[in-house]
Every structure is written in structure tokens, then in C-alpha cells.
């Protein structure tokens, strides 16, 4: 959640340096019964293809480990509450669309009680939800939160895949300036117990759009969530944060476990995310808050953000902590295309001196192109309050018309290493601007001499293929080719899933 002034806010995890033996494609094949649900069925039927049930809930109450519930096409104006688990040996309980058909779970007219998913998974293990359209779960009441798919409590081995979730909305108008209690989510995973976590969660290939979220997020992992993969999702046209990994909000009853962690966010496309028409950021619309991140880590730790496209958002990617004395830590942002975002490309650190810090994170091999489209001067990389021991290396930074590349207005900045980057700006090397520890430098030479940063970096046109169309790949002859510094943090794949090193050394930027 964010308030106030522009708040700046399969795939194997074992090979990502996290020491996690979990893959996004890790599933257990169902070996049990097959059941069927259809809009013209009856719960007194046998649940077979020829005699299907009518309600999703009857199927959820009946299906056991290893069972697959095939749901035929049609509109189901019903809630689905899953409290039964599959198992490691027998397989998951799977709810899936019948081949070639799209079942629609439609919340029109259904009440929302507390924080509630129209598809709601409580304290379950080995459950898969696949191939549904989930829509129209809305409220005009404050202090309740509609969610498309809500996973909560403890449990694990949960897969949410190939679902289309849209028009989940909270349009309440509570009194007060901040409109507290006006919240919704598309997908939410809340680890609300301890020490038992929600673990081994795969959220893959979903589309989430046209959500009215208030001060909440499109897709969120919050609290005691350990080991997750958010991959290949398309998230767009929502009025707050796209993907969020959160800690320190008190979702876990034990603060030692209150951080989402050990995750990968990969292969997603996040675009058209903005808070500017969200009354939770100011009732007078548009409010020009420019506060919604495409991808955000707020207090999470030990995770990787790689091979994503984040564009036309308020902020491309942010790693920060909104909680004083608490750090977002050990996050790697690598091999992403980040472009045409309104406020900045990548932001890090607390948005003011009452916030937390960003510690031990790596921003490597990204291509950032003409963010800061509103001309605010936050540049391509916005280094905020309290940043410690971070690495910023092998990135391409192309400035917008402001010519600002890095903007760091705070002096609480220690141990950060910035090198082997490629910079370019419309005004050329002499007019390009960097601000570091609240001191502005105009010109590349002045910046390097004044800060000691970027001793091995260059200022040159990176020769991108077609950046106006979002194609930030390198042309032959680009000065970024083979000019980066290799290291364990660069990963094994580039933006296209090709080997990260193909020549004498790694390229600068996301494209190898």
C-alpha cells in the first residue's frame, strides 16, 4: 500500500542462487477420480460427464486427493470455497476448464464478507485452479475486500494457472482523505500463520485487468509466504500496483516470519498500471500521484525479478521498504526491459526519511529506456532514502527528454557499487545529468570524477533495434556487446531465454 507524495515506491529456483529446490513446473499428476460440473447439471447427479453436478461448491465438498473437477463452459454465479487438500502421493485436487471451453465464475450480485475470494483457498495443500474466467466480484461497501482468487492461512503446493481475472472492484467512498478500507485484489496470497507458511506457490500464465484496487494490489504475496514463482502473467490496466511482494505489514502473527521470500518473478508483462485515477491517492481526479509500480518488493527478501517487460506504468520496478527500521534485502533485478514509465524506471530505498531501506540488492543487466516521461526529473534510476551495499552493474540507461539518468536526493547512501553501465541521453554526454548523494553533476566526466562511480562505464548510443515500438534488443555493432562484467548474479538467461553469455563476455543490458 502507498500513500502520500509520489510514493516510490519449467523455471528452477535452485539455479538462481537461492538454494531452493523448487520449480515452477513442479506438479503431481492427478491419479484419482474425474468429476464434472455443468450449468445444466444437478448436485443429485453422479458427477460424471453424462450426469454432471451443478455447483462448484458441491464438487469442492466431494473431491478428494488426486481428483480432477472438469468444469464445462458457461456462467457460474457462485462462490467456490476450497478447504480440502490433495496430497503428495495421490496428487492435487484440480479444478480445471473442460477442454476447449471456458467456465466463467461471475460474482455479479454476490456479497463480500471481510477479505473474501470468490475463489477462496483456506489452509490447503496440493490444489490447482486452472483455466477459469473470474469476473464481476465487486462491492460498494468499505472495510471489505473482494478478491478474485484468495489463498490464505498456511499450506502449499498450490498452482493458479491460465485464469483470466477482471472487474474485481471496490468502489466504496468512505469518509476521510485517504479512503481507508477501499481495497480489492485480483490474486492474493496471505501467509497468516506461523511458523507454518504458505509455500511452493506457482502463479503462471494468468491475465489480470480492469481491477479497481484502492490502496491494494493486482497480484500480491504478503506475510509468511515462502518459495513462490510468479511467471508468464499479463497484468494491465489496473489502478494500483501490478505485482507486489510484501513484508512487515503484520499479516503473520509472528514478526520473524512476516516477509514474503524465496521467490521468482519472471516472464511477466506488466503495463498501463497507474494510480492517477485512483481516489485512494487523492479524491480530485486525475490526482497525478504516479505512485503505482508495475513490479514492487516492499519488505520482501531473497527473490529474483528477471526477464519481465514493465512499461507505461507509473514506476517500472521498485525495491523498497515502507516500514522504518526494516529492509527489503537480497533482491536481484536482472535482464528486464523497463521503458516509458511515467515517474522512473527502477526505484530503490525509502520514499522519505520515515521509511525503511534497501540492502544488499543487485540491479544487473537491465535495459531502461526513456522512463521519467512526465519530466519530473526522477530519471531512469531513482535512488531514495537509505540504500546500503547494493550493486548496480551492466545496465543500459537511456534518458528521457530531461537528460536525467540517476537521481539520488538523499545522502544516506553507503557501500553501493555502480559500474560497467552504458548511459545515453538526448542532450549528449555534456548535458546529461546525474544526482548522487544530493549533489548534481552535469556531464559524464564530471559525474565520474565527482562520485567515483562508473569507472568502467561508457556513454554511447546503445543502438537499440526499434525502441519506439518497445523493441530494446541490440543491433549488430552495439557498444553494449561483450562489455559487461560477468558474475554469479547475472543469471543464465537473457530477456528472450537465450544463454546469458554468448561471446567473449556478457553484454550490457537485458539482451544477449
In short:
This protein is mostly beta strands and 512 residues long. The chain has two helices and 46 strands.
> For this structure, what is the CATH class of the largest domain?
Mainly Beta
Number of strands: 46
So, CATH architecture of the largest domain? 3 Solenoid
Secondary structure class reads mainly beta
What radius of gyration results from the CA coordinates?
Answer: 23 Å
What does this structure look like?
The chain is built from two helices and 46 strands. The chain is mainly β and 512 residues long. It is elongated and about 80 Å long. The strands form five sheets. It has a 16-stranded parallel beta sheet that branches. Strands 3-6-9-13-17-20-23-26-29-33-37-41-44 form a 13-stranded parallel beta sheet, with no helix packed on it. The model is unreliable at 1-30 (pLDDT under 50). The protein starts with 33 loop residues before the first strand and ends in a 38-residue tail after the last strand. The protein folds into two domains: 1-25 and 72-310, Pectate Lyase C-like; 314-512, no CATH class. It comes from Paenibacillus favisporus. Residues 1-24 form the signal peptide. Residues 148-367 form the Right handed beta helix domain. This is Right handed beta helix domain-containing protein. It is found in: Secreted.
Amino acid at each position: 500500500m502507498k500513500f502520500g507524495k509520489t510514493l516510490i515506491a519449467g523455471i528452477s529456483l535452485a539455479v538462481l542462487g537461492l538454494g531452493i529446490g523448487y520449480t515452477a513446473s513442479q506438479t503431481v499428476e492427478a491419479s484419482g477420480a474425474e468429476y464434472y460440473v455443468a450449468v445444466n447439471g444437478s448436485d443429485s447427479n453422479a458427477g460424471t460427464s453424462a450426469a454432471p453436478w451443478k455447483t462448484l461448491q458441491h464438487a469442492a465438498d466431494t473431491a478428494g486427493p488426486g481428483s480432477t473437477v472438469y468444469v464445462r463452459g458457461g456462467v457460474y454465479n457462485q462462490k467456490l470455497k476450497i478447504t480440502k487438500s490433495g496430497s503428495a502421493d495421490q496428487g492435487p485436487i484440480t479444478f480445471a476448464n473442460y477442454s476447449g471451453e471456458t467456465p466463467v465464475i461471475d460474482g455479479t450480485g454476490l456479497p463480500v464478507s471481510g477479505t473474501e475470494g470468490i475463489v477462496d483457498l483456506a489452509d490447503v495443500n496440493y490444489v490447482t485452479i486452472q483455466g477459469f474466467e473470474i469476473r464481476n466480484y465487486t462491492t460498494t461497501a468499505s472495510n471489505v475486500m473482494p478478491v478474485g482468487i484468495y489463498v490464505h492461512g498456511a499450506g502449499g503446493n498450490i498452482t493458479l494457472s491460465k485464469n483470466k481475472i477482471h472487474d474485481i472492484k471496490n468502489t466504496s467512498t468512505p469518509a476521510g482523505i485517504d479512503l481507508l478500507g477501499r481495497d480489492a485484489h485480483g490474486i492474493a496470497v496471505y501467509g497468516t500463520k506461523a511458523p507454518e507458511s504458505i509455500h511452493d506457490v506457482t502463479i503462471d500464465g494468468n491475465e489480470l485487468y480492469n481491477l479497481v484496487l484502492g490502496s491494494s494490489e493486482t497480484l500480491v504475496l504478503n506475510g509468511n509466504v515462502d518459495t513462490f514463482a510468479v511467471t508468464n502473467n499479463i497484468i494491465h490496466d489496473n489502478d494500483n500496483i501490478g505485482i507486489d511482494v510484501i513484508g512487515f505489514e503484520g499479516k503473520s502473527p509472528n514478526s520473524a516470519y512476516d516477509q514474503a521470500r524465496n521467490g521468482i518473478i519472471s516472464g511477466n508483462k506488466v503495463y498501463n498500471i497507474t494510480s492517477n485515477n485512483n481516489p485512494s491517492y487523492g479524491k480530485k481526479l486525475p490526482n497525478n500521484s504516479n505512485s503505482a509500480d508495475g513490479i514492487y518488493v516492499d519488505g520482501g527478501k531473497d527473490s529474483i525479478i528477471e526477464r519481465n517487460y514493465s512499461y507505461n506504468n507509473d514506476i517500472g520496478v521498485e525495491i523498497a521498504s515502507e516500514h522504518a527500521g526494516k529492509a527489503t534485502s537480497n533482491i536481484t533485478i536482472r535482464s528486464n526491459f523497463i521503458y516509458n514509465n511515467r515517474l522512473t524506471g527502477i526505484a530503490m530505498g525509502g520514499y522519505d526519511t520515515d521509511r525503511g531501506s534497501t540492502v544488499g540488492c543487485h540491479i544487473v543487466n537491465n535495459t531502461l529506456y526513456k522512463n521519467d516521461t512526465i519530466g519530473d526529473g526522477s530519471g531512469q534510476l531513482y535512488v531514495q532514502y537509505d540504500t546500503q551495499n547494493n550493486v548496480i552493474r551492466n545496465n543500459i540507461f537511456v534518458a528521457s527528454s530531461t537528460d536525467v539518468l540517476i537521481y539520488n536526493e538523499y545522502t544516506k547512501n553507503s557501500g553501493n557499487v555502480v559500474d560497467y553501465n552504458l548511459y545515453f541521453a538526448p542532450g549528449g554526454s555534456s548535458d546529461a545529468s546525474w544526482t548522487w548523494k544530493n549533489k548534481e553533476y552535469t556531464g559524464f566526466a564530471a559525474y565520474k570524477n565527482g562520485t567515483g562511480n562508473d569507472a568502467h562505464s561508457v556513454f554511447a548510443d546503445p543502438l537499440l533495434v526499434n525502441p519506439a515500438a518497445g523493441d530494446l534488443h541490440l543491433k549488430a555493432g552495439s557498444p553494449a556487446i561483450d562489455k559487461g562484467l560477468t558474475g554469479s548474479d547475472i543469471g543464465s538467461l537473457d530477456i528472450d531465454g537465450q544463454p546469458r553469455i554468448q561471446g567473449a563476455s556478457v553484454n550490457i543490458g537485458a539482451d544477449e
